[in-house]
Every structure is written in C-alpha cells, then in structure tokens.
Amino acid sequence: xxxxMVGFVLSASLCFDIGVANVAVIQTSLTRGTAPGIYxxxxxxxxxxxxxxxxxxxxxxxxxxxxxRYILWIGGSLVLVYMTYxxxxxxxxxxxLNLEADNSKVKRSIYKDYFKGFTLTASSPxxxxxxxxxxxxxxxxxxxxxxKIEIFYFFGGFLLFNLLWSLLLPIVVKKAEHLVGSKILNIxxxxxxxxxxxxxxxxxxxxxxxxxx
Length: 213
What we know:
Elements: H1 2-16, H2 20-32, H3 34-62, H4 66-91, H5 110-122, H6 125-143, H7 148-175, H8 182-212
Helix pairs in contact: 1-6, 1-7, 1-8, 2-3, 2-7, 3-5, 3-6, 3-7, 4-6, 4-8
C-alpha cells in the first residue's frame, strides 16, 4: 500500500506541475469540449508512464553504484527544493489562457488529439528533466528495498492518478468554465509546490538514513 500511495502522490506532483500539455488540455476542453481534452490527456498519460518505466529500468542498472546514489540523493533534494520555489513563484504569477476556439480543428479525430497529448508530453524538456532528476530520485528512494512484484503497486498508483487526472481535468474545467483562467493555473502551481516540498523531505531523509547511517 505504501508503494501504491507513493506512486499516486508522485503522479500528482507531475500532473499539478502546469506545463504545456496541461495548458493544452485545459484550452482544448474549454474551446472544443471535454472529449477532445480527455483524449489529449490520455496521450499525455501514456507518455508519462513510458518515461516512468524508462526511469526505473535505467535506475535498476545504476543504483548499485554508490556515487550514483549520492548524486540522486543530493542532486534530487536540491532540484526538488528548486522546483518548490518555481511552483510557488508560478502560484503568484499572472497567467492567461487563450480561450478562442479554433473552428478549423473542431472535427479533429480522437487519434490526433491523443497523439498531440503524447507528443507534447514526450517532447517537453521540462518533463524529461523531471524524470531524469526528480522522478529518478524519488523512484530510487522508494523501490530499492522492494521486490519486482511489489513495484507494480507503485506503477499502479502512478497510473491511477494519471488516469483520474486525464478524465476529470477536462470535465472540471468545463463545468467551472466561468472560474477558469489564471486562477486555476495558480492553484495547481501552489498544490504542486506543496507536493514537491514533501518529496524533497522524503528524498533527503531517505538518503540520510541509508547513506550516512
């Protein structure tokens, strides 16, 4: 259950980090409806899960190296603190959404929406950096003492939140259309800051206990 919850919260920290894919989902949901936004979100979910699996495969080959573990501990903790700062900064920044509908794309197929969500997430430098640093540090601090079967619980939690986010975000923003704008982006950024701060403490304490004691 612990691994499931860590994966669940880790996925939340990634989803609440407002990047180009989330903004695109929100804009699409508002201008073209919830269904295209959901398909785009599912594409982003596929990309996130792929990155998470690649992070795990890479880390399983590197975690036996003590220097790599120190880098993940110190570097991951510092990056998480920095991400907390960035999210707090974004939480108080004035941001805007382009809510003008693009009528030329109203009939876009679900496959194109799905592929756009996948591409926006997979090609995002911030997403790649997140998994290479933040995600890698958290995953290494979580899975190293667990069996391969138990790790599936971690990915189950990760996938569940991602799916819930993809399904509910377009519905929520469409239902609360009159409230959506810079405020919802600021709220997401503030929640992300809290989650990043939690994981900064988690990664630091794990490294302190296992590398220094």
